[in-house]
Amino acid sequence: MTQNLQHTFNLAILFLLLPLSAFCQDSVRSVRPDSIKTFGALQKVDSTETAGALQKIDSVEISTANSSDSTQVDDELKSEEKNQIKKRRTKKEKLPKSDTARIKITGGPQLYLDYGKLITFPTDFEQKFEIGVVYQFKNRIQPNFHFGIATIEPDAAIENGTYKAEGSYWRVGANYLVPIDNINRLFIGVRYAQSKFDDSGSYEITSELWPTFTESFARTGFEANWFELVLGSEKIFKNGHLLLGGETGIRFINEREKADFIDIYTIPGYGLTSDESSPFLNLYVKYQF
Amino acid sequence: MLCLFSCSEEEIQADGIEPFVTVKFINQDSIVALNADISVINADIKDIDERIAEIDKADNRAELRDEKDSLNDVKSSLNKQKTRLSSIRSRINSGKIILASLSGTGGTGQILSADSANQHIFPLNSNTSNVRFFTVISGRLDTLDFTYNINNEFIENQLRAIASNLEVNYFSFDSVKLECRDSTCISNDAELTAYF
Description:
The complex is a heterodimer of chains A (289) and B (196).
Chain A: H1 2-66, H2 72-94, H3 98-101, E1 108-113, H4 115-118, E2 126-136, E3 141-152, E4 161-179, E5 184-205, E6 213-236, E7 242-256, E8 266-267, E9 271-272, E10 277-288
Antiparallel strand pairs in A: 1-2, 1-10, 2-3, 3-4, 4-5, 5-6, 6-7, 7-10, 8-9
Helix pairs in contact in A: 1-2
Chain B: H1 2-7, E1 20-26, H2 28-57, H3 65-93, E2 97-104, E3 111-112, E4 116-117, E5 120-123, E6 130-137, E7 140-155, E8 158-171, E9 175-179, E10 191-195
Parallel strand pairs in B: 1-10
Antiparallel strand pairs in B: 1-5, 2-3, 2-4, 2-6, 6-7, 7-8, 9-10
Helix pairs in contact in B: 2-3
């Protein structure tokens, strides 16, 4: 069990590091050269245009002082040039803020598909499927609803028999986005989830001398609910509609039914019942309208 | 006890899922015969010791030296014989025998063995509350019946059948002794000694 937990957390850490490293590369490629260019351009503007304009003002002022027959047109020209210089200085002061101001969150509905669970379909011990709808608000809040179905047949549940849990579940919650740039974003979130499921199984006692003893059971109508803490990251593809991401976190069981004799081994959508909390890792793709 | 069941290659294996009773066989007849032989030897040795003591006290012990040497030779031979018989008796007391065949009424199989063992695992039938075993030791066929109550328990992800209130209902051995840990007499803790 400890090894499984360690393995899951290792995967989670690895998963979180990958988008971060992608972000760092993106930052080096795109954001930094822009900033450098902008600063370079500003320095040029500052050093050449401002100096030139100031020289002009000085020369105009000197010539005005020396000339007693200056016209009204000259005064207008002077004031216009001063205004332009002021505008440029104001622009220069605001420019460093432009790097963060450029991060834009596009609002709108999103469709969610957990592609990590699709990998389970070829296996003979579990089949899982989970989809969801998400709405991205521009204020970084991301309410979401997920629905899933699962059939789980863990070998370890009954060593001398078989066990199967199957049912559906839903999760509802909200994420808060922490954009790194226009492409990469981190998020944290909380969710509440419920599952309705059935379980069944059989067991046998084999003997060298006697006929094999076999019994089976089938139970229906179990319910469980739990909370989830989520930490994730996602990346927006160039077309702006496709998002690829992953999330890891921990689920805390709130309520679950207990069965007599052989207890519920696993809950669809939650995981093993042997612990009050269960780590998870989801890989998903989203389409934003 | 678990190590005893799982570590010895000579014994019938049990994984704990199926209920079982540990059985030990003592060839009581052989032990009685061996005890009798050893008693005779002891008596002979005692007679020899007494005669040697008389010789040592006699005035003409120099003339009886040859007799004394001869008696000592006989005594030495008897001691060797006694040691061998005592060893055989110890081995029989330990229950080390070859259980050539174990089968049961309504069973689907038979356990055959050519190796000797101190203890033997008798698996109980998980489908019923009584069982009749047939054993073959040195060509001798014996019968042993048990009655019990079967309960299923789920322990460490294993469905295990536990037999309780174990009792011996019938036996064809000279005598049997069933030892339980407590009054519920749980099958896997019980040990039966059969004397034949």
